[in-house]
């Protein structure tokens, strides 16, 4: 295609060259004037473009400096990158909503952790893996770990409720679809095993619950063939081995008063029930919409 265009341009040039001498002899002074005017206009245009570009460059530098100064710089950049990547697969609307639901979940962890005095980093996104907040220091007790873990799905349940509310107000299927995804995402994270939120919460209840979580994880790996769950399984097993090897330290770390154990247990079960209801309800509405169309 490019070669054809070049040949076509060459033919046009040859034709112009054959007719040009005649025209130049008759109107050379007028041509020079036109060229002069065009040259001046071109210079002015370049200067204006340079000025405009200079302003944009200054603005860009300012925004970049502000971004670097912000502790959420990594969050914004990784979040934007994740949206762009997901948009290529799922479309922009779903990508933005999906990443926003993950962001709300992670900010639940971040805010809760900060309130209880834990030193954590802002959320970071990894496309097709998820997101996380980094801990600059290990939790001082299983109580801190459980509360930090609880903040994510709690915020996620609220985000799911907001999506369902928008669906009621607009009757747009997008919102109910996003509510289903949000509910599923947070319910998945409550699986009681390993580094998942459920594993960190149930650790404050009883490490024996992890046996149930281990079985569920293996079953889900077989059924879903999920690479992420394989990573969860490996990390979880490593943590179990570490806890067994350091029995005395583990026993001290797991010390929790009965009152807190009851509260965290009820909160955990309540979240499971609420998110399950949200997910099933969203699924039913989605199915009704599909049947009606």
Automatic annotation (TrEMBL):
Similarity field: Belongs to the peptidase M50B family.
Domain named Peptidase M50: residues: 93-168, 174-209
Protein keywords: Hydrolase, Membrane, Metal-binding, Metalloprotease, Protease, Transmembrane, Transmembrane helix, Zinc
A cellular component term, taken from the record's GO annotations: membrane
Pfam families per record: Peptidase_M50 (PF02163)
Amino-acid biosynthesis listed as a keyword: no
Transmembrane segments: 41-64, 76-104, 116-135, 147-168, 174-192, 204-221, 227-244, 265-283
Record protein name field: Peptidase M50
Needed co-factor(s): Zn(2+)
Basic and acidic residues: bias regions: 22-31
Membrane topology, as annotated: Multi-pass membrane protein
Keyword Repeat: no
Localization (cell): Membrane
GO molecular function annotations of the record: metal ion binding; metallopeptidase activity
One biological process term in Gene Ontology: proteolysis
Entries under InterPro entries matching the protein: Peptidase_M50
Region ranges (Disordered): 1-31
């Amino acid at each position: 295609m490019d070669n054809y265009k070049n040949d076509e341009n060459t033919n046009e040039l040859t034709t112009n060259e054959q007719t040009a001498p005649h025209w130049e002899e008759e109107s050379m002074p007028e041509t020079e004037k036109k060229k002069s005017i065009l040259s001046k206009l071109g210079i002015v245009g370049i200067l204006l473009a340079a000025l405009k570009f200079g302003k944009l460059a200054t603005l860009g530098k300012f925004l970049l400096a502000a971004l670097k100064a912000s502790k959420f710089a990594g969050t914004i950049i990784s979040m934007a990158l994740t949206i762009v990547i997901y948009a290529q697969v799922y479309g922009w609307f779903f990508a933005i909503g999906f990443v926003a639901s993950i962001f709300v979940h992670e900010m639940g962890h971040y805010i809760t952790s900060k309130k209880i005095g834990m030193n954590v980093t802002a959320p970071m996104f990894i496309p097709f893996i998820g997101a996380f907040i980094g801990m600059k220091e290990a939790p001082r007790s299983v109580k801190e770990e459980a509360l930090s873990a609880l903040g994510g799905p709690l915020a996620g349940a609220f985000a799911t409720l907001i999506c369902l509310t928008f669906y009621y107000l607009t009757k747009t299927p997008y919102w109910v679809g996003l509510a289903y995804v949000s509910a599923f995402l947070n319910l998945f994270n409550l699986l009681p095993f390993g580094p998942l939120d459920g594993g960190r919460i149930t650790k404050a209840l009883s490490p024996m619950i992890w046996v149930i979580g281990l079985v569920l994880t293996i079953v889900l790996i077989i059924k879903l063939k999920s690479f992420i769950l394989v990573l969860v399984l490996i990390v979880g097993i490593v943590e179990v081995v570490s806890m067994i090897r350091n029995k005395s330290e583990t026993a001290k770390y797991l010390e929790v008063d009965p009152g807190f154990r009851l509260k965290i247990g009820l909160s955990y079960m309540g979240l499971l029930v609420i998110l399950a209801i949200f997910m099933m309800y969203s699924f039913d509405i989605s199915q009704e919409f599909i049947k009606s169309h």
